[in-house]
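Q: Sequence in, structure out?
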Amino acid sequence: MKKFKPIIIVAGEPNSIFIEIFFKALKKKIKSPIILIASHKLLKLQMKKLKYKKKILILDYKKLLNYNLDNNSINLVNINYNVTKTFDKISAKSNKYIEKSFKIGLDIIKAGISNKFINGPISKKSFLKKKHLGITEYISEKFLSKNTAMLIYNKNLAVSPITTHLPLKLVNKKINKKNIKNKVKLIVNFYKKFLKLNPRIAILGLNPHCESIDSFNEDEKIVKPVVKELKMIGYKVSGPLSGDTIFLRENRKKFDVIVGMYHDQVLTPIKTIHEYDAINITLGLPFIRISPDHGPNEKMLGKNKSNPLSLIKAISFLDKH
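A: Exactly. Output:
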């Protein structure tokens, strides 16, 4: 019988909807054992609040190879956290807890026990403190991975921004041939390796209608030449294409991936189209890292109404690969 590598899940921000959607996701049949990294005390408090019952098996993360794990219980690596309320406001109080959770989760990956990693949402403002643009960059630094890409993946249509959580006024400084070429290569390699597909990729322009009143037009000087170079090495790329029409139904169905120049250029329409039916995959790491495509969502804490679809999709993807 094939033995499946475990899926490592770091719960992330303790005051988020993640544990709620984690409980809901566990109702699905999953072949790979799941190892949750979180606070035992917090987990029990939220289980009581959300009326969820399941046995908890506390693991020694240094001896994971000694366990014969399945998903009949919650397999937990406990991270001590001085919690007094089931749900609280997001603050810097949880930073050390989150940092330790990530450290242990990534140590398990580095030890070769698994190559499947999911993290719950965190508050960039509270946890990252402007030291990193996002968790993608935070994790990439831990593995010295300088060339990474964010892929918001759905099997029908995915998107990837050349720049991630960067202020708009700084975006044009990061738009260059090297960045575009590196991101596209990561996307193509991912699709070929995991999906056995040479993807059709649309590359958007930076400017409205790919036109500019400025003397330097990035779409003419940067995007158009790099698209030509990528075509010459066998990539199915088109561009530069205008961001205002690419997501029309008849246009978008011609492509597997749409690459934008900045975050909201592609994430806003893809979330409108797919809502929770997409996952955030980091390309360029020596393992598969996925996060559900949503934030902590403080307004929904304790209501037991949050949609688990994105986490279910993340687990399902890793379960197959």
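The CA atoms of residues 5 and 114 lie 6 Å apart.
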